[in-house]
């Protein structure tokens, strides 16, 4: 297989292999910690889980990426990246250990969320640093290959970490703190792995660093504003971003609904519900993988806007058909379908942005895209918190989501006809 061959070429590069090890350990720890946080909020027997609690957990997991993301690069271009991996992972190991102590101490929710928020805030620096450091360990000819394989390997590591967390949670009693400590141990391993690289290997070069931090932050703010203006002048890019934001909103609202169904409506045993949630997430991940295979062919045959119409239109029909019975079988099928549709829309959006936005503005536009992507999910959690009953069975929520999918399909079809007429 070409992917396996490419990976073999890259892992022969010592510095790339060491950087990849840091990525795999860091993202595996992320997967463990995020699942630990979610299952503690949703499935702890002593907690009366509510949609509002889930919305709070989603905000803790995602908002740091949105608020810190655009400015993380400014600091990463001033700090030695090897040191970011070392101290960032050490800090996360310490903070995750503190979270475990807070779980055992049964502290007020706000203190638990503050600790968890601190851990996820550091993630943005580590993940952005891993991408920024890649050109320092791979030559220009192999950079595209490395950019394709390294994040994919990290995603698989995060998925494996999440699966490991689910397994520990299922076989152990009172295991919330134990799962968090597993994540802390992996963060510590990632910090130690970074010591295998020279301190100055990953940059940045001192002579290229802007002398004043305030000037760099102000420049970033002005750059984001100019990125918004540039985006407003590119109708195809603006339109796909609107469509993707709404599709992400729908996916987020339905995710919260499934969490509540697993917790209350389907099984009385907490571990049975947790196992079913793990199956749903695995099936949704299979939909993501299928989208990666199908979308290039579909976009080539239909074009990006028609493919978005097909995805949103299919969701508008299938969400009520599969969701309204509120039974596990159809919901699991829906998990696969929505995973496929959401990821297919994201791949299509990425492609349209890459082809319609000028290269000089592409980084800023993708920073804005990242903000919209995460804020939509958090906003969906908040709306679901207002609409869902305790057992998660809300006909109104499903109908609203189906209506949004239908509106996206109709509007995107109109945009496509307008573009063809020009």
Question: Beta fraction of the residues?
Answer: under 5%
Shape: globular
Give the full name of the CATH homologous superfamily of the largest domain: MFS general substrate transporter like domains
Mean pLDDT: 80
Reported CATH architecture of the largest domain? Up-down Bundle
- Class by helix and strand content? mainly alpha
How many structural domains are formed by the residues? Answer: 2
SSE arrangement, N to C = HHHHHHHHHHHHHH
Query: What fraction, in percent, of the residue positions are helical?
Result: over 70%
CATH topology of the largest domain: Growth Hormone, Chain: A
**Number of helical stretches of at least 4 residues:** 14
Uncertain spans: none
Q: How can the largest sheet be summarized? A: none
Q: How many angstroms does the end-to-end distance come to?
A: 43 Å
| CATH class placement of the largest domain | Mainly Alpha
Rg, Å, rounded:
22 Å
Name the quaternary structure. single chain
> What is the number of E strands?
0
Could you outline the blueprint of secondary structure elements for this entry?
Layout: H1 2-11, H2 14-43, H3 51-76, H4 81-105, H5 109-133, H6 140-171, H7 176-194, H8 213-232, H9 235-265, H10 270-302, H11 304-323, H12 328-356, H13 359-387, H14 395-421
């Amino acid at each position: 297989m070409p992917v396996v061959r490419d990976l073999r070429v890259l892992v022969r590069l010592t510095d790339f292999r060491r950087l990849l090890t840091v990525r795999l350990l860091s993202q595996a720890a992320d997967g463990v910690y995020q699942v630990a946080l979610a299952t503690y909020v949703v499935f702890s027997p002593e907690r009366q889980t509510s949609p509002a609690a889930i919305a709070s957990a989603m905000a803790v997991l995602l908002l740091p990426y949105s608020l810190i993301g655009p400015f993380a690069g400014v600091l990463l271009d001033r700090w030695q990246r090897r040191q970011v991996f070392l101290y960032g992972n050490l800090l996360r190991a310490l903070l995750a250990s503190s979270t475990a102590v807070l779980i055992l101490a049964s502290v007020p929710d706000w203190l638990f969320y503050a600790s968890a928020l601190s851990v996820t805030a550091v993630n943005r620096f580590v993940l952005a640093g891993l991408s920024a450091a890649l050109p320092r360990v791979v030559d220009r000819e192999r950079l595209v290959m490395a950019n394709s394989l390294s994040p994919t390997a990290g995603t698989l590591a995060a998925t494996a970490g999440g699966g490991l967390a689910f397994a520990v949670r299922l076989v152990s009693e009172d295991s919330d703190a134990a799962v968090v400590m597993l994540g802390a141990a992996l963060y510590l391993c990632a910090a130690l792995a970074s010591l295998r690289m020279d301190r100055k290997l990953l940059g940045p070069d001192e002579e290229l660093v802007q002398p004043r931090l305030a000037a760099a932050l102000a420049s970033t703010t002005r750059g984001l504003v100019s990125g918004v203006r540039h985006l407003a002048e590119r109708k195809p890019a603006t339109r796909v971003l609107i469509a993707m934001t709404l599709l992400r909103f729908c996916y987020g609202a339905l995710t919260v609904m499934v969490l509540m169904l697993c917790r209350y409506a389907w099984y009385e045993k907490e571990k049975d519900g947790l196992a079913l949630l793990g199956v749903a997430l695995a099936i949704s991940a299979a939909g993501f993988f299928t989208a990666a295979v199908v979308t290039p062919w579909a976009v080539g045959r239909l074009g990006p806007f028609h493919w978005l119409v097909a995805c949103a239109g299919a969701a508008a029909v299938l969400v009520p058909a599969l969701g309204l019975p509120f039974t596990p079988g159809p919901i699991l099928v829906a998990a696969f379908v929505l995973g496929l549709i959401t990821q297919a829309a994201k791949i299509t959006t990425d492609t349209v942005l890459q082809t319609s936005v000028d290269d000089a503005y592409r980084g800023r536009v993708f920073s804005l895209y990242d903000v919209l992507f995460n804020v939509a999910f958090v906003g969906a959690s908040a709306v679901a918190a207002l609409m869902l009953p305790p057992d998660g069975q809300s006909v109104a929520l499903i109908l609203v989501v189906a209506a949004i999918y239908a509106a996206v399909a109709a509007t995107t079809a109109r945009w496509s006809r307008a573009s063809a007429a020009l």
